[in-house]
UniProtKB/TrEMBL annotation:
Major localization listed first in the record, in broad terms: membrane
Bilayer topology: Multi-pass membrane protein
Domain ABC transmembrane type-1, residue spans: 86-278
InterPro entries reported for this sequence: BP-dep_ABC_trans_perm, MetI-like, MetI-like_sf
Record protein name field: Carbohydrate ABC transporter permease
Source domain of life: Bacteria
Keywords: Cell membrane, Membrane, Transmembrane, Transmembrane helix, Transport
Length: 293
């Protein structure tokens, strides 16, 4: 009796594991290069902030410091009024972030959850704000601020910074609200909850990660803003950190570089610490609009 031929199992390709290994190696090398490009400037900045002025001026600017000193930090606070600049930056950043979160959440809730006949058109108009350059608003805002008495105030920076950050914030909140099950809102409505109660007890608690994402993304832009502060701030007492760095430029354009680097380190450290602490929540907020659940 002739037995039927047994089908041979396909052998795993020898080249496939090798190809995966090459891809992983290339991915690892790429990640390492990106990390070096991102971390090296920060490391050089922190190291240079501890160098003496003579060491920085007389030696190689990119070499390892031959002597460490804390005098640059004390000089940064004494010369540039850094403490007041930090307070002003905090006021502007916290005020604009609060305005962005409140207005962005309410607008996204009205557009995505409540809905109305012209909501697609209104959403499209908000999204057009992403491509509007901030420079075109400087002169009109300066004229309006001078007429209503808002020039040279914290509000003169908070209002435009919040306004130009709203489109992206509304987009992030709308993306998240679109994936909240409609049954949740319907069940709350059947229980007698109105739109304000639904927003306060359901939408708001679920939006915590998205709020963290919106605040972190916009805080970096607001904290480092120069153009609005340079246009609307006239007095030294309201200068933010980017404007305050100009105080380290002395006569004939000479710059106290080591004190400037120390001031920059003081200004970027809070953002780095906040980002490291809330990094996980920020990633979850960015992913919340991409996956349902």
């Amino acid at each position: 009796m002739i037995e039927p031929p047994v089908a041979k199992k396909p052998q795993p390709s020898q080249g496939r594991p090798r190809k995966l290994k090459i891809q992983r190696t290339l991915l690892t090398v790429t990640i390492v290069l990106i990390v070096i490009v991102q971390v090296y400037p920060l490391l050089w900045l922190f190291l240079t902030s501890f160098r003496t002025a003579a060491d920085f001026a007389g030696g190689n600017a990119f070499s390892w410091p031959s002597e460490f000193t804390l005098e640059n930090y004390s000089r940064a606070f004494e010369t540039g009024n850094l403490g007041l600049n930090i307070v002003n930056s905090l006021i502007v950043t916290l005020g604009a972030s609060a305005l962005i979160v409140v207005a962005g959440m309410m607008a996204a809730y009205a557009l995505e959850v409540l809905g109305f006949r012209l909501s697609p058109l209104v959403r499209a108009l908000f999204m057009l704000g992403i491509i509007v350059p901030v420079q075109i608003a400087l002169v009109p805002l300066f004229i309006d601020y001078s007429k209503v008495g808002l020039l040279d105030t914290h509000l003169s920076m908070i209002v435009p910074l919040a306004a130009f950050s709203l489109p992206m914030s509304i987009y992030l909140f709308s993306s998240f609200y679109g994936f909240i099950p409609r049954e949740t809102y319907e069940a709350a409505s059947l229980d007698g909850a109105g739109p304000y109660r639904i927003f306060a007890q359901i939408t708001l608690p679920l939006s915590l990660n998205t709020i963290v994402t919106v605040v972190l993304v916009n805080s970096i832009f607001i904290w480092n803003d120069f153009i609005f502060a340079n246009t609307f701030v006239l007095s030294d007492g309201l200068k933010t950190i980017p404007l305050g760095l100009q105080n380290y430029i002395g006569a004939m354009g000479n710059t106290d570089w080591t004190a400037t680097f120390a001031a920059v380190c003081v200004s970027v450290t809070p953002l780095l610490l906040v980002f490291l602490v809330l990094n996980k929540a920020m990633i979850q907020g960015l992913e919340s609009g991409a996956t349902k659940g």
